[in-house]
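Demo today. Your pick:
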Amino acid sequence: MAKQNINTKQGFTIIEVVLVLAIAGLIFLMVFVALPALQRSQRDTARRNDMSRVDTSLVQYQTNNSNKSNNLPKTGKYVGKDDFKEGNNCGTDDPACQFVRDYMNSGSSEVEKNNEFEDPDGVPYSLIITNNWGEDGALNTNLQFSENSKLEAKDTGYTIGGANPFSEYVVYIVPGGRCDGEIVEKSQKRHFAVLYRLEGAGVYCIDDQ
């Protein structure tokens, strides 16, 4: 009688294949959803570090200008996308531009070649140094960037508002301010607060106190 070979090896069933594909698809979906949030968080961390650098540079400015009344740069507006071009030395009446040039860009006037003060998106930061607080405890907000980004009054102080504040990449320096969460409140004249609208987590406020 001839020996009969019986092949008992079996392949995957349709259900097993579908289950493996479903699990792989779920893993891919989780990575696809989580990765942009992780990248956004990393960019916002870099922005917080940049605002800490602004804070440190302002303290250095105060040290270098200890003979002045409140030791802070005067009111001014620096538009990073337009104002700083090769060979621009800012002039004598542009404190915001001078602060960026001398403290955020290593003193370079050729900022298009040597711009170190830019958002992780690759867009140069703009900067506004506001007026100091009035005797009535209000902040003069006449110096605004645009309808997209501006300081708006809250119950206890001010924060960054506007139609689309992050799109303008504006750093606000508020002399005489201190931070309470996302709000800047009135403090002593020699103090200051720095505000920036983050991409995914509201307004970041840091001060020297």
In short: Residues 14-64 form the longest helix (51 residues). The longest strand covers residues 170-175. The mean pLDDT is 83.
